[in-house]
Amino acid sequence: YKSEVKVSSDEFSVKSLVVSDKTTNIGSLEDGFEINLFTDEDMKNPATNQNVFVGAPIYVSVDWKVTTLANLAAFYVDKCAVTFGDRSLAIVDKNCYSSSFGAKLIGQKVVPSSAMWQFNSFVVGKGQKTMEMKLVCDVKVCSVDEEKCERNISETDDQCEQAPAYGYKAN
Is the pTM here over 0.70, yes or no? Predict the structure, then answer.
C-alpha cells in the first residue's frame, strides 16, 4: 500500500504502511479515511452550511475507519489545504499548523484512529458573504514498531516551512 493518502471533506460553506517481506502489493487506503468537521470542541455538532460563521473555529477529525490495524499502524496529518474554486490555502504543511488561520493540534500528532485539530473559518475576497470550501488532507501511514511516523514529525517551529504569512508552528 502507498504510505501517503489524500482525503477530502465534503464541501462546506463559511457563513502506507511499509512492511518488509517477499511479497509486495500496491493498493490504496484512501477509502479507509474520512474528514469530519464540527463547530464544537466536543466534536458533537457537525459543521453545516447553516452553522459556520466567519472567524468561528472549525474542529477537524481525520478518522481512520480501519480499526483492525490499530496495534500495527498509525498515521499523522502531513498537509491540509482549504480549497475554493481553483485556489487553495495550506492550513497544515509538513505537520505544522498555520497560526495565521488559528490552526492548532488537539491531542497527539501520531494516532491510531483519529487526528484532531482546529482552525478558524474565513472567507476570501472583498465583499464575500459566503464561500464554498473543501478541506483536502494528505495523511501518512506507518508501522508503529519502527517509529517511522515519529522520524517525520516536526517537533520544533524551525522544522516548519518558514512562510511568515502562514506562521506555521509545530504545536
Answer: yes
